[in-house]
Amino acid sequence: MGRYVLRRLIQMIPVFVGATFLIFVMVYALGDPVSALFGDRGPDPATAKALREEFNLDKPVWQQYLLYMGDILTGDFGTAFNGEPVTALMDRAFPISFRLMVTALVFEMLIGITLGVITGLRRGRSLDTSVLVLTLAVIAVPTFVLGTTAQYFLGVEFGWIDPAVSPDARLDELIVPGLILSLVSLAYVTRLTRTSVAENTRADYIRTAVAKGLPRRRVTVRHLLRNSLIPVITYLGADVGTLMAGAIVTERIFNIQGVGYQLYQGILRQNSPTVVGFVVVLVLIFLLANLLVDLMYAVLDPRIRYA
Amino acid sequence: MPDQEQPPPLGAQEDAATRAVTVGAATPEPDAARSLWSDAWHDLRRNPVFLVSALLIVFLVLIALWPGLIASQDPQRCQLGRSLQGPSSGHWFGFDTQGCDVYTRTVHGARASIAVGVCATLGVALLGAVVGGLAGFLGGFWDTLLSRLTDVFFGIPMVLGAIVFLSMITLSGIWPVVLVIAALGWPQIARIARGSVITVARNDYVQAARALGAGNTRMLLRHITPNAVAPVIVMATIMLGTFIALEATLSYLGVGLRPPTVSWGVDISAASDGMQFRNAPHILLYPAAALSVTVLAFIMLGDAVRDALDPKLR
């Protein structure tokens, strides 16, 4: 197990370097951070030159990237254009987005897996069909339409929630945004669990479990569910990264000042240190989540062992 | 990475073998043994989900090509005096904030959405199939290299990468959007194509072709591609719907298509800006409904095609 983890961690290094380098090139080579800093009016050439030297922008891109990565390894993510260290922005934004992501994941697991198991066991019945149609509808209507309409009806028309989330983003304020964020993935989790459960109900080990007289509940939970969850876990793991980054739309609608909000502001203002810093952390989270998923396999399926 | 090295189930092998006979033979399939494709087509013709979604898609493609067929007015001809007027007998969908006819704009919006979806999917499928297919076929060093390259692109979240890229370039129109979706979306297809090619390449008929002295090009084109392409086609069809939704999301965020272009994303974005739809729900409803129905049609088509091509569900 330990050796497998180590090997996977070493394999992650080139992927991490490649992904962050791509983003770095996009931001620093395609855009011009110095002229972005000055807005519409062109900068004074001498000042621009001094700034370029200060931030190493006069060097070739690969050198800039190495210098930047060197700084990051020592915990220095640079300074945002407003003079605040990027790490200070991260300290504020990541806990908020993390809470939002966890809320969404909880919805996905509770509602998605429950619906999936129920429909998978009752394939072809009317409940199954109606849930299937509902998931299709949820996948087809874009999140930003669902989000704005939910915000309008729940927040403005009925007044059940605040239309905008406060800067602290307490957990109870994040329930509706979390649900909206989770909806598309929730639909996929339902469909995935359904297919997986329906396939496994015909498996030999289920027939054995029933034949040896285990109670129905135990067969479903211990035998069927445990084996059916493997593809679902894979999906959820990959979803962690998507939820953190995909929250851009949800955070924009509900004015949640998390990672997506900071990134969006950073991108619009071409605030390069903020954008690259946040993306580097997001890529890392994404890769670690996928590693965690592979390790979960061994827990769920005893046949899989990592030497 | 724990690769799945088990041989495919017996049924799949037999199935692949019958497929090989019919695909390999130069004459079109004889009646006795139907190929995978004609078998799938046989199933599809009887599937109501497929028929409904295919009809819808044909209709959508028609109005994307010739919007004038059902909407004769100019989508850019707007009169501010009619701003936010509700639906009436002459103008069924009412007018938007700028006083443009919502019906005309909704019909004309199909073109941008469908064009982005189709072009991006073609790019993604081609790029993914070539990279993944070569990785699976060549194996060894090339497999490692191409798989890591796939991982690198897979590591960049799609919406995020698209926003960063699109906000940095100043070009307008559909091509930057198509390009960025194709550039970031291919790893998913590549992984599927690689797995599919590895499974097919292990089959006896491929080994037999190799033993008979077939070259790499012939192996790829005649024996492997026809048998490994089905999962790629299924995935691409499902992705087409999600790409159309992605274009609308990017337009909503202000980095996708921009106003002179008529698109559902642009109109939905304008309608939700500052909750303008609160007094005139029709300006949000119609473009959003058109978008949702289109996405739905492509996802349903993908589902139906997958069910027809997947021998496990027979």
- Determine the oligomeric state from the structure: heterodimer
The N- and C-terminal alpha carbons of chain A lie at a distance of 5 Å
User: Number of DSSP helices of chain B?
Assistant: 12
Low-confidence stretches of chain A: none
Number of helices of chain A: 12
Number of strands of chain B: 0
Q: Per CATH, what is the topology of chain B?
A: MetI-like fold
Fold topology:
The complex is a heterodimer of chains A (307) and B (314).
Chain A: H1 2-30, H2 33-38, H3 45-54, H4 61-73, H5 86-121, H6 126-140, H7 143-157, H8 175-200, H9 204-211, H10 216-254, H11 259-268, H12 272-300
Helix pairs in contact in A: 1-12, 5-6, 5-8, 5-10, 5-11, 5-12, 6-8, 7-8, 7-10, 8-10, 9-10, 10-11, 10-12, 11-12
Chain B: H1 10-24, H2 36-44, H3 48-65, H4 102-138, H5 140-154, H6 158-168, H7 175-201, H8 204-211, H9 216-228, H10 230-252, H11 264-272, H12 282-309
Question: Could you explain the architecture of this structure?
Answer:
The complex is a heterodimer of chains A (307) and B (314). In chain A, helix 5 packs across helix 8 (175-200). Chain A has helices at residues 2-30, 33-38, 45-54, 61-73, 86-121, 126-140, 143-157, 175-200, 204-211, 216-254, 259-268, 272-300. Chain A folds into two domains: 2-73, no CATH class; 90-305, MetI-like (MetI-like fold, Orthogonal Bundle). Helix content of chain A is 77%, strand content 0%. The termini of chain A are close together. By secondary structure, chain B is mainly α. Chain B has a single domain, classed as MetI-like fold (Orthogonal Bundle). Chain B has twelve helices and no strands. Chain B has helices at residues 10-24, 36-44, 48-65, 102-138, 140-154, 158-168, 175-201, 204-211, 216-228, 230-252, 264-272, 282-309. The chains are: A mainly alpha (307), B mainly alpha (314). Chains A and B meet through helix 1, helix 6, helix 7, helix 10 and helix 11 of A and helix 5, helix 6, helix 10 and helix 12 of B.
